[in-house]
């Protein structure tokens, strides 16, 4: 899951600071989600899925279909 959220961010030409601001958190806190150091709360997963217009199943690696 963690590489997938990094890839989605990079594919959207966004940096960690921009995504962190969208989520209302620090860049350092968001970075820990991408590295797997911290688990991603459900509310954050939902926001990221909306931001990238993909399903949560895709973000979790359950499916390779984005929607």
Chart the SSEs and their pairings.
Elements: H1 2-11, H2 16-23, H3 27-35, H4 42-52, H5 56-60
Helix pairs in contact: 2-3
Major beta sheet, specifics?
none
Task: Calculate the mean pLDDT score and round it.
Answer: 95
The SS-based structural class is mainly alpha
Which regions contain 5 or more consecutive residues with pLDDT less than 50?
none
Concise structural overview:
The protein is mainly alpha-helical and 67 residues long. It contains 5 helices and no strands. Helices cover 64% and strands 0% of the residues.
Polypeptide structure, described:
With 67 residues, the chain is an all-alpha fold. The protein is 64% helix and 0% strand. It is built from 5 helices and no strands. It has helices spanning 2-11, 16-23, 27-35, 42-52, 56-60. Helix 2 (16-23) packs across helix 3 (27-35). The mean pLDDT is 95.
Task: Name a few traits of the molecule.
0% strand; mainly alpha; 67 residues
């Amino acid at each position: 899951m963690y590489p997938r959220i990094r890839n989605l961010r990079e594919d959207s030409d966004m940096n960690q600071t921009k995504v962190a601001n969208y989520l209302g958190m620090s860049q350092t806190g968001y970075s820990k989600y991408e590295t797997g150091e911290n688990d991603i709360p459900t509310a954050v997963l939902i926001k990221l899925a909306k931001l990238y217009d993909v399903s949560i199943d895709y973000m979790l690696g359950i499916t390779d279909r984005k929607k």
